[in-house]
Design brief:
Layout: H1 3-20, H2 22-33, H3 38-70, H4 74-93, H5 116-125, H6 128-141, H7 145-167, H8 169-176, H9 178-214
Helix pairs in contact: 1-6, 1-7, 2-7, 3-5, 3-6, 3-7, 4-6, 4-9, 6-7
């Protein structure tokens, strides 16, 4: 793996980890599964992560085809995706889970629904922010097979890390404390905001460069 691929992989890993935000999901996971037996809680967690990973891979593989079908340019999607990610980062700066990915209490699964599907997998672990990010990264890969494989491996790594953190979520929250979790969420929000602004700048710069080349 050359240096450019390594840098791309590290950037993708950091971005996806921030957007998926397993530390931010942990309190919701604990609350949703607090009445479950340990074995059922573990099965629910595994099922939620597998579903979320499947959604991510679906948009990774079909991202280019989807944009082409909709007639959306890479530059337009980069700008709109950056704006969406920036909106996602704002609530994180105030110590909350992004509103685009966090259901309200009365929106959480009702009796008979599988919390692994809603709200854990969708939208907590693979919400609009995650889908936007993987599409933007897939566009940056530009059909490069090596980079597409790296994105698939990075996605798997992010959800594996998420499984480890959520598996130990009760002990993790108890050890860190709610205050430290909120501080960490705000720091991750700052990072995500910076990434979002860079997406917008790349989109605007690429669009004007394409106009100049067209002339």
């Amino acid at each position: 793996m050359d240096e450019s691929l390594l840098q791309f992989g590290l950037k993708a890993l950091a971005t996806l980890f921030v957007v998926v935000g397993p530390l931010g999901v942990a309190p919701s996971f604990v609350a949703l599964t607090e009445e479950m037996e340990l074995a059922k809680r573990r099965k629910t967690l595994l099922r939620a992560l597998l579903i979320a990973f499947g959604v991510t891979i679906f948009f990774l593989i079909g991202g280019h085809a989807l944009l082409g079908y909709l007639g959306v340019t890479v530059f337009a999607f980069s700008i709109s995706g950056g704006i969406l990610l920036f909106m996602t980062s704002l609530p994180m700066l105030f110590g909350h889970r992004p509103a685009l990915q966090s259901p309200e209490r009365d929106e959480q699964a009702s009796i008979g629904e599988d919390v692994a599907v809603f709200p854990l997998a969708i939208p907590l672990l693979s919400g609009p922010g995650t889908i936007t990010t993987i599409l933007l990264l897939a566009n940056q890969a530009r059909a490069n097979t090596s980079r597409i494989w790296i994105l698939a491996l990075v996605s798997a790594a992010v959800y594996l890390i998420s499984w480890c953190l959520l598996y130990a979520s009760e002990r993790l929250i108890a050890r860190l404390g709610e205050g430290k979790v909120r501080i960490l969420t705000r720091v991750l929000g700052i990072v995500l905001a910076a990434v979002a602004v860079q997406y917008v700048l790349n989109g605007v710069g690429g669009y004007y460069q394409s106009l100049l080349n067209g002339q």
